[in-house]
Amino acid sequence: MNDASPATDESVHPLGIAGAIVAVSAWALSGVVAKHIDMGGIAIAAYRFITYFLALSVFMHLRGTRVTLRMLRLSLWGGIALGVDVALFFSAVKHTSVANATVIGALQPVLVAIAAHRFFGERIRPRDMAFGAIALAAAIVVVLSAADSAEPDVTGDLLAVGALFAWAAYFVFSKMAKGSLTGNEYTIGTAFWVGVINVPLGFAFGQDMSWPDTESWLWLLLLAFGAGILGHSIMNWSIQQIPLWLGSTFTLFIPTVSAAAAWVFLDEPLTGTQIIAMGVVILALVGVVTGQAGVGSRPRPLRR
């Protein structure tokens, strides 16, 4: 009698894929919204996440779910990772070019893929790796084709590298929360920690942490509920439904959406190279998605 090896592919939920696409699109648009807020980046993060935490706490309380110490404890590391990522990235762009910081951040799927294999036993097929590599290269072209005039600086690049590792760690900790917390519980916990971390960091970096004016609050509320609900809440749910490496790969869509939104809403020009690279990113990610069709429905070999 021969024992067939069980399949190790994690099931892929179509709604999980759709949710991840919506989430990264919301994150991409948040950068355009932040342009309209006359506040420092860390101050924006502090007010944005604290507001989202309070609003989500009320919503969950009305549905009979309280914020508990257990919830905050189990979301601690994910919240720290996200809080550090936000602080380091916004600090990085103060010292180096946005292009440099964004390109370094685009390497996140590589780190996450390694961690996904190491901690969760996920395997990436050569076909998906090829499409992912094409999407990564094209995303970098999108960013570099719109490089700003800021002079690169080693300090800023090192801060961006720190943000890269923190951003990758956030995805890993989010996956680890599966089975311990619901998506909403994990989201509210991480929002709490991001707010708590960025308040003292804002003062430490000399940012104006005073109460925002009315116009700034309108944009902050849009960020809190747009990027919060459509971004973090949906992504935290999605990566419980799909492989971690797949959810991370979708972040390569962020530069494309950001560039397109900046063109539409901020009148920022798009170069021909950018447009071609954006198209390549989309086609490569479509290739990754279509490659997942039926993965979750493949029958597992029977042990006899």
Question: Can you characterise this structure?
Answer:
It is a single chain. The protein is mostly helical and 304 residues long. It has one domain. 71% of the residues lie in helices and 0% in strands. It has helices at residues 14-34, 41-62, 69-74, 76-95, 98-105, 108-120, 126-144, 154-176, 183-204, 214-238, 244-249, 254-265, 272-291. α5 packs parallel to α8. The longest helix is centred in the last third of the chain and has 25 residues, at 214-238. The radius of gyration is 20 Å and the shape is globular.
Order of helices and strands: HHHHHHHHHHHHH
State the separation between the terminal residues, measured CA to CA: 7 Å
Structural class category? mainly alpha
**What percentage of residues falls in helices of 4 or more residues?**
over 70%
Strand content: under 5%
Determine the oligomeric state from the structure. single chain
The biggest beta sheet is recorded as:
none
What is the number of helices? 13
**Count of strand segments:** 0
Overall pLDDT:
85
**C-alpha Rg (nearest Å):** 20 Å
Count of folded domains: 1
Shape, principal axes of CA atoms: globular
The low-pLDDT segments are 1-9, 296-304
